[in-house]
Protein: Putative ABC transporter ATP-binding protein YlmA
Amino acid sequence: MIHLQGLTFRRGEREILRGVDLKINPGEHWTLLGRNGCGKSTILEMITGYLFPTSGTIDVLGNRYGQVDVREMRKRIGYISPSLIEKMTLRDPVWEIVASGAFAYLRFYEEVEDEVRERAYIELERVGLRSLAEQPFSTLSQGERKKVLLARTMMASPELIILDEPCAGLDLYEREKFLYALNELSTRKLSILYVTHHIEEIVPFFTHVALMAQGKLVASGLKRDVLTTDKLDEAYDLPLDIKWRDDRPWIEVGKVNL
Ligand SMILES: Nc1ncnc2c1ncn2[C@@H]1O[C@H](COP(=O)(O)OP(=O)(O)OP(=O)(O)O)[C@@H](O)[C@H]1O
Structure:
């Protein structure tokens, strides 16, 4: 599904990625964790073909980057990045925003086929927003907008969904609703790669975790093997204690001397 080998990325004197190896198999759902600036978004931008490594190889969905048209690859990958919402036209109705995902357009300049419109309604129904289909996108809450983007992503039947901090700025209720919608999608034939700063967002359907620090992977593998006190201490340089409740982790922070 995704195989990164020996990825490095340099900008001037800075080594932003330092030998990242990561293998994600079909059907696995991964969370990528690490402090600000450790290189998470850089990895996502490489997997989506917007950035190229200084050295190392990237294989995604059976294709080696450098030997494949990345525009074709992007049609097979749903990518929800922080900048995507800003690119949407706020006055467009919600269903149209969703429908545009079928063609990877940002908006339509011609009549939308009935079949595409119907599919947009179905995807909206799946994320629980069918009733808002005719409203302008601008009238939706932040959480609803994020779920609209999820529905939009599903229009292209992606084999891989990549999300960069999709719950940033959402209140607890909106966050849980978003994660519930994502959980529903996780049962379809696809893999999810999800970047977050919040360990409690690692809901039960996530199977694996990759933990980064300063451009390197501290650990990667099954979530219970990676989310240990020692490994988290190493990545965050804080006295942390991990607890589990209903297969969902949360963090206790010990006395901090910064
Ligand atoms: N094109 C670039 N030129 C120079 N520096 C860059 C470039 N792209 C990223 N960086 C730097 O690389 C580091 C990693 O950035 P990246 O956005 O991948 O981190 P991140 O882990 O996603 O951080 P955050 O959690 O804050 O979003 C940062 O220090 C950033 O300033």
Q: What stands out?
A: The chain has a mean pLDDT of 92.
